[in-house]
Amino acid sequence: MIRSATLNDIPEIRAMIRELAAYERAVEQARATEEQLREALFGEHPAAYALIAEDDGTGEAVGYALWFPRFSTWTGTRGMHLEDLYVRPRARGAGHGKALLAALAATCRSNGYDRFEWWVLAWNTPTIDFYKSLGVELLEEWKVCRLSGEPLRELAAQAPDVVNPAFDV
Predict the structure, then answer these.
(1) What is the pLDDT of residues 14-31, one digit of tens each?
(2) What angle do CA 105, 109, 115 make, to 5 degrees?
(3) Is 131 a known active-site residue?
(4) 128: exposed, middle or buried (C-beta count within 10 Å: 0-12, 13-18, 19+)?
(5) Buried b / exposed e along 34-50 (16+ C-beta atoms within 10 A)
(6) Entry pTM
(7) Helices marked H in 51-169 — which ranges?
């Protein structure tokens, strides 16, 4: 079963985020707290949304997908960015990952989103093969750019004053 996450799922989502980070060899980077997840998913202005995959027999949470809307200047429409897709190892191969992706694709269609995009680690061959089996197009010519830590602080210190800023998140 695939369902929308609830407040009661926050501890399980956090646990699965840490499991995913361990799989991706970056557990030390998974620092999100339950309070941060609660605010991000269920606060006054949600930053993201989550689906839970449950085992039909036990009702246990065996996976999750966390996503947020994005915007394309090329299409002039919103799209979806999938931040995390994770199925616990013991539940893999039972269709939970495909069901999560299908539910997200249906969300895209019902909201008029033209694009559904996410990243995958280059070394994660089993996942890449799974995505290819679904017809996913890998955009090999694009590189992900990230600015964080001290370089982010240094660049921010060089920012000019913005007159009438459009947002303050």
Answers:
(1) 999 999 999 999 999 999
(2) 70
(3) yes
(4) middle
(5) eeebeebbeeeeeeebb
(6) 0.89
(7) 96-111, 125-133, 149-157
